[in-house]
Write a structure and sequence with these properties.
The strands form 4 sheets. This protein has a 7-stranded parallel beta sheet with strand order 3-4-2-5-6-1-7, sandwiched between helices. The protein is α/β, with parallel strands linked by helices. Helix 32 packs across helix 34. The chain folds into 5 domains: about 200 residues, 3-Layer(aba) Sandwich (Rossmann fold); about 170 residues, P-loop containing nucleotide triphosphate hydrolases (Rossmann fold); about 100 residues, Arc Repressor Mutant, subunit A (Orthogonal Bundle), CATH 1.10.10.10; about 80 residues, DNA polymerase, domain 1, CATH 1.10.150; about 100 residues, Orthogonal Bundle (Arc Repressor Mutant, subunit A), CATH 1.10.10.1390.
């Protein structure tokens, strides 16, 4: 152990080459060296690793570092070995090692060479390892990524819950727990679970002033991502997606569009993941497309942008992932594409999980929705979520809402009304229930608890005020500390002391209306329907779009077909952005493909060519997104399987797809103009009359919306799956 305090600075210089400590590092290290349990909450880039590495290097014995990711352990061990001449100074112990390598690790520890041993929580619980730890001198335990302990954390791992009993079994030594993200609830959970409620707590500010936060509507998202990355030429970035399938597809799309990118997810071989991570660190590639499996503890200081193709499941996850940008204090842009449809999908994924887990998941999602849809300062919102007060004037235009402020309105009376409603329902209900009371909506909860008899019932419905309006009002009251949310009890709203004071003496408070993202399409190639488009917005040439729409109507009228059978609006919109004037350019437009281009395309490219010439338009050919070649392999397999009349369940199983996803793939094939005959499958699951009725509906309907079809023909009569299959049959027979 160190004899004099001043030598800490000598060690910092000797081992790490730094002249001074950052923030609270010195106080944290002193706490660990004094043998006290220590809890560190420090944002990404704040220098957490040093808080346990330095005390480990100067203490007697070996520090055991519990870390959740093999790639992260390797990274840290390599870095530590570079600081000294002795490779044995740091080791890791996990499932990737051979027996001979494990023997070498244990030998170095016994010889006193090893100061830091990184272990996975699973390795710590193995009996032979526990026995080995009894034989050696342990200086302290460090639990990295400690939020993994909490079910309320964004990356809960059940094995982390078993750490305390194992540590106690091994012997009483100090613990340092570290995390880059913890709400007050998660902080409490970590301390309780690790039995360190009396620990020294060091909490740094969560504000990363160099990060710019922006949320964009999810329209033409693939094209927007490509455009954005190409505008960041030569800079390193990460694109996060929720599913492995989307990661693979997007990485491939970026590559064929000239961007040096690779995929990263837990389904890839460990060697391949390590190779990709090294390529990113060495700047052989510019972009990693990843699931959340990537980046925990990644030590690359100059990541210049983090894009979320999909909104994360929690704000902790969002904060952690965006926190990988600009760790050197330089530029860091965080761009998220958001559509409420994605939230609906995430809620569907939760079905089948235990009820308590579903409730927690829904609460975390609600917070994410609030963040995405708010029009007030994003930085203030984020920091408030982590229990930190922040004056939005300090944002300095470093979020989209502060850079382009929205119109505000005086909210004093409505905030008071919302607080009164929370008190009237005895502080026992969630935001949605309180809003239903304010709007006078008769729901089952309102009926059960007789909320319609309350004085405030329906008082918030005047002047066409909507649910979105009241969401913004309640959010402002939460951020201002007048209301609080009891997260542990399913997000029930409570009135704070300040809230009661506000009722006695109200004062001016400005509120900003929320953004509306409900009309946005979820993705370029998501399932079914005409995608809605945006009526010539998002960069489309409105004059050309209107002309193409007229031509579509004329063509549909002549062929006696609904317009969407020929081209969907989203395809017309893309034509009005890309100006295709040759058949091989038209084929690249979303939802066109070879079949439709040949059958319907000529008048459309003739019209565009004439328009381009007359208006002397420079065509943005560089932004024609090339489609993925390797996707065709799956499509060919599906077409061949349908030709062989294989049951769709078997086709889905063979490719590891859910039936829903297979139907989406078939829809994509049909929308591109290829004919498929699924009559053999439909005849097995539906009787002839039912099929005939659905076919007649699509022939006469102006819309191919599945929801509208189900409403018209009866949700009791048809399932969503059956209706989508009937739409495929209709498009195949009449459009292709």
């Amino acid at each position: 152990m160190l004899e004099v305090e001043t030598s800490l600075h000598d060690c910092l210089q000797k081992f790490f080459g730094f002249d001074s400590f950052k923030g609270q590092q010195e106080a944290i290290i002193s706490s660990v060296l004094e043998g006290k349990d220590t809890f560190v909450i420090m944002p990404t880039g704040g220098g957490k690793s040093l808080c346990y590495q330095l005390p480990a290097l100067v203490s007697e014995g070996t520090a055991i570092i519990i870390s959740p990711l093999i790639a992260l352990m390797k990274n840290q061990v390599d870095a530590l070995r570079n600081f000294g001449n002795e490779d044995g100074i740091a080791h890791f112990l996990n499932s990737s090692l051979t027996k001979a390598e494990i023997a070498k690790v244990k030998q170095d520890i016994k010889a006193g060479k090893t100061k830091l041993l990184y272990v996975a929580p699973e390795s710590l619980t193995k009996e032979d390892n526990v026995a080995f730890f009894h034989e050696i001198k342990i200086s302290f335990f460090a639990i990295d990524e400690a939020h993994c302990i909490s079910e309320w954390g964004h990356d809960f791992r059940p094995e982390y819950r078993r750490l305390r009993p194992i540590i106690e079994q091994i012997g009483k030594v100090p613990i340092i727990a570290l995390t880059a993200t913890a709400t007050p609830k998660v902080q409490q959970d970590i301390q309780k679970n690790l039995g360190m409620t009396k620990a020294n707590v060091f909490k740094s500010s969560f504000n990363r002033s160099n990060l710019y936060y922006e949320v964009r509507p999810k329209q033409n998202v693939i094209k927007e991502v490509i455009k954005y990355i190409k505008s960041q030429q030569g800079k390193s970035g990460i694109v996060y997606c929720l599913s492995r399938k989307k990661v693979e597809e997007l990485a491939e799309t970026l590559r064929v569009n000239g961007i040096k990118a690779l995929p990263y997810h837990a389904g890839l071989e460990a060697k391949e993941r390590a190779k990709t991570q090294d390529a990113f660190l060495m700047e052989d590639i510019d972009v990693i497309v990843a699931t959340i499996a990537f980046g925990m503890g990644i030590d690359k200081p100059d990541v210049r942008f983090v894009i979320h193709h999909d909104i994360p499941k929690s704000l902790e996850g969002y904060y952690q992932e965006t926190g990988r940008a600009g760790r050197d204090g330089g530029e860091g842009n965080c761009v998220t594409f958001y559509s409420y449809d994605d939230i609906v999908k995430l809620e569907k994924f939760m079905k089948g999980k235990p009820v308590a887990e579903q409730e927690i998941g829904k609460q975390l999602l609600l917070e994410t929705v609030s963040y995405a849809e708010t029009s007030s300062c994003r930085r203030k919102f984020l920091l408030h979520y982590f229990g930190e007060e922040f004056d939005e004037a300090g944002c300095g235009g470093m979020c989209d809402n502060c850079r382009n402020p929205k119109q505000k309105f005086e909210g004093m009376d409505d905030i008071a009304l919302a607080i009164e409603a929370v008190l009237d329902v005895k502080e026992k209900f969630k935001t949605k229930d309180v809003i239903n009371v304010l709007l006078g909506n008769i729901t089952s909860t309102v009926k059960t608890y007789k909320h319609n008899e309350l004085e405030c019932f329906g008082k918030g419905a005047e002047d066409d005020k909507t649910e979105k309006y009241w969401n913004a009002v309640i959010r402002q009251a939460l951020v201002s500390g007048l209301l609080s949310k009891d997260i542990e009890n399913y997000g029930l709203l409570k009135v704070t002391k300040e809230g009661n004071k506000f009722l006695d003496e109200p004062y001016s408070m400005m509120v900003t209306k929320d953004h509306d993202y409900e009309g946005t399409e979820s993705d370029d190639d998501d399932e079914g329907g005409s995608g809605g488009g945006n009526k010539g917005g998002s960069g489309a040439d409105e004059v050309l779009f209107a002309a193409l729409k007229d031509l579509l109507k004329q063509t549909a009228h002549k062929l006696k077909l609904p317009p969407y059978v020929i081209f969907q609006e989203v395809s017309l919109e893309e034509m009005a952005i890309q100006y295709p004037i040759k058949m091989d350019e038209l084929v690249n437009i979303t939802g066109v493909g070879q079949g439709k281009a040949q059958k319907f395309g000529k008048p459309f490219i003739d019209l565009i060519a004439k328009y381009v010439e007359e208006n002397e338009i420079e065509r943005p050919l560089d932004m024609v997104v090339k489609s993925i070649v390797n996707k065709s392999g799956l499509k060919v397999y599906i077409i061949q399987s349908i030709d062989r009349k294989l049951p769709l369940e078997d086709v889905a199983k063979a490719k590891g797809l859910a039936l829903n996803d297979l139907i989406s793939e078939i829809e994509s094939i049909v929308h591109s103009g290829t004919k498929v005959n699924i009559n053999y499958y439909l005849n097995d699951i539906m009787d002839e009359d039912k099929q005939e009725e659905a076919l007649e509906y699509f022939k006469e309907s102006e819309s191919d919306s599945i929801n509208e079809a189900l409403k018209e023909l009866g949700e009791d009569e048809y399932t969503e799956e059956e209706m989508r299959l009937m739409r495929i049959k209709f498009l195949s027979e009449f459009g292709n």
